[in-house]
């Protein structure tokens, strides 16, 4: 079946602009996660949704970052007033129900802030 | 704060040789995951280890978990070039819900 998909695959923006990154989880997966991966590092947790609600948003670095999942499926990560330090690959993952279920990752969105 | 450390971070080995990657973590957990990442690609799940003493094998890779030592190992047997990739271990602890904390990754290169 279809895996996790993310759009766009690449996004180049200028410092100070607003960006939205989209994630389509595997159908039927109730848990959705966002991570950020910098070059040469492991992914860092940003936020976790169970259904429509953010169960854990403690990884969001500051209030410029926000994520929604209004219907419990597709999620959008929103970054306001982008900074050069936001440049990274943003990964989305989904799992059947959270907990011990394996997280399946999407291909990522490479964000470059000039 | 949960810390996950892998070693080595870089590993160059010849085809046919055996080697082990180590993953240490700082807080009690009984849930550990191994992922593989090819350059420019996303993460592929390899193993899920859910209890002390768990051992799982797939092809030339075998993973084990010792929760008392807070240590997991990924053993590579008779390496082949196709195993060249970056390998990550990741841990989650019940108090953190379902968030994964990843190690820095081990970049494995298998030379002919």
TL;DR?
With 114 residues, chain A is an all-beta fold. Helices cover 0% and strands 48% of the residues of chain A. Chain A has a single domain (5-97), classed as Immunoglobulins (Immunoglobulin-like), CATH 2.60.40.
The CATH fourth-level homologous superfamily of chain A: Immunoglobulins
C-alpha termini separation of chain A: 37 Å
How is the biggest beta sheet of chain A arranged? 7 strands, mixed
Q: Low-confidence spans of chain A: pLDDT under 50, at least 5 residues?
A: none
Evaluate the radius of gyration of chain A: 13 Å
Named at the architecture level, the CATH assignment of chain A is Sandwich
> CATH topology of chain A, anyone?
Immunoglobulin-like
The CATH homology group name of chain B: Immunoglobulins
Q: How many individual domains of chain A?
A: 1
Your description of this structure?
The complex is a heterodimer of chains A (114) and B (112). With 114 residues, chain A is mainly β. Helices cover 0% and strands 48% of the residues of chain A. Chain A is built from no helices and 11 strands. In chain A, the strands form 2 sheets. In chain A, strands 2, 4, 5, 6, 9, 10 and 11 form a 7-stranded mixed β-sheet that branches. Chain A has a 4-stranded antiparallel β-sheet with strand order 1-3-8-7, with no helix packed on it. Chain A starts with a strand and ends with a strand. Chain B is built from no helices and 11 strands. Chain B has strands spanning 4-7, 10-14, 19-25, 32-37, 43-49, 55-58, 61-66, 71-76, 85-91, 101-102, 106-111. Chain B is globular, with a radius of gyration of 13 Å. The model of chain B has no long low-confidence stretch (mean pLDDT 92). Chain A binds chain B through residues 31, 33, 35, 40-45, 48, 55-56, 58-59, 91, 93, 95, 98-100, 102-108, and chain B through 4, 31, 33, 35, 41-45, 48, 50, 88, 90, 96-105.
